[in-house]
Structure to design on (492 residues):
């Protein structure tokens, strides 16, 4: 998508959300931006294998040349520092590879402005060459796909939503679940499934809860939380609790 | 999108999210579902004029026959009752019009499971004919478009999100803004803009806030909240505050 009048002097970087996994959940804007790009980049956690965003594009558009950027997804401060240095190396490469007037797109699962490495990359590019024009195209998020597949109404009338990360199970998750007029979405909580199930039980919300595991992958699973047992599941999981309704 | 194997015995109703306004933000799945539908329905607030979802489809796909359903958007209990009776009348019509094996799609702005009339319609259809197979296709939400257009990072690392309705300005909005590690999204708060700006100032979040007014329409406006003045604006507005970052 030509978000701007293309100048022959500037370089362009666009973060493109490719949705949660189903190639049909790409937007028309995303397809257009990818097909018209001069350089397509995608994050991966292993240089030898396509990342999930790349796999989605292969299914949606076919085999196109994609430059893989290896992002280490380790947690904590050291993980953040690793990602920062990766982003800086990739940013230098992008600025060098692009000719004036050319456009790079960086593929991200879900939405590029929500828990993605795009913003980090964009900040690095801006620090190297502030004249690069940066934009993004929103994408469908995993929780929206899970809501649709569960058949629930996520929000109605004046209800609210709380979206949290479940890497640590702390007071925030309990507080959110106690707020019965809020839908609660928990990302990345699979490894803490037992503790989250316990909190959901305590706050009376277990029976309405749903979980999606590996939503972006072929073997994705969507089920009611109470059907799935209480063993930890993969990191890539989404749990959803609709508001308590009477 | 054929979400299911089509049976010749059943009838189908699919809620299709058409995104926030830009026709390019439709998904491939939405376009496919609309183009293959036997009956396309869209909500409107005036029978003589297309609703916003219909306008988006006219731009994306062209003029197709669309059956308008008049939904009164009045607030409060009486508004809800009016929408319920409208949904019931529309549901009867859908079940009568559809032949076995045929599919109706109901267009909604944004996502069909988030503050839309689709779920109400679906429940009415299910109450009349429980054999109708109901599904939905997620859509890009207005706040995602606003985030993209503002250039902000909405969520990073372990930050969280609170999405609230601003029809009433109460403790919930203040509490959300006080939680500095949360991004805050406020829908439908345009008429309470002065009070919300006041709370944002009090909690130190005004300078990072953005507002989108009439995002789904041609004359949409996106700006920093502090540039927009303090007069009430239209109902169809979205305000966003990213987490406080250091």
């Amino acid at each position: 998508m030509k978000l701007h009048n293309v100048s022959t002097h500037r370089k362009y970087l666009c973060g493109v959300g490719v949705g949660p996994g189903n190639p049909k959940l790409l937007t028309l804007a995303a397809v257009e931006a990818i097909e018209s790009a001069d350089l397509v980049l995608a994050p991966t956690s292993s240089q030898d294998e396509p990342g999930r965003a790349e796999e989605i594009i292969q299914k949606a558009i076919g085999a196109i040349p994609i430059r893989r950027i290896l992002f280490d997804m380790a947690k904590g401060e050291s993980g953040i520092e690793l990602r920062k240095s990766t982003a800086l190396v990739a940013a230098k490469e992008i600025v060098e590879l692009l000719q004036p007037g050319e456009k790079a797109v960086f593929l991200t699962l879900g939405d590029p402005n929500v828990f993605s490495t795009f913003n980090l990359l964009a900040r690095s590019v801006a620090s190297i060459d502030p004249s690069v024009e940066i934009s993004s195209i929103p994408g469908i998020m995993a929780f929206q796909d899970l809501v649709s597949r569960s058949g629930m109404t996520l929000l109605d009338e004046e209800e609210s939503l709380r979206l949290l990360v479940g890497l640590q199970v702390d007071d925030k998750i309990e507080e959110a679940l106690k707020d019965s007029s809020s839908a609660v979405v928990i990302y990345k909580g699979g490894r803490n499934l037992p503790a989250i199930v316990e909190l959901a039980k305590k706050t009376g919300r277990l029976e309405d809860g749903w979980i999606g595991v590996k939503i972006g992958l072929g073997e994705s699973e969507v089920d009611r939380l109470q059907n799935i047992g209480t063993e930890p599941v993969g990191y890539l999981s989404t749990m959803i609790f609709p508001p308590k309704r009477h």
Q: What stands out?
A: Helices of chain B lie at 28-35, 52-60, 76-97, 118-128, 142-150, 171-178, 193-202. Chain B touches chain A through 51 residues (CB under 8 Å). Residues 12-137 of chain B form a domain with the Cobalt-precorrin-4 Transmethylase; domain 1 fold (CATH 3.40.1010.10). The two ends of chain B are 45 Å apart (CA to CA).
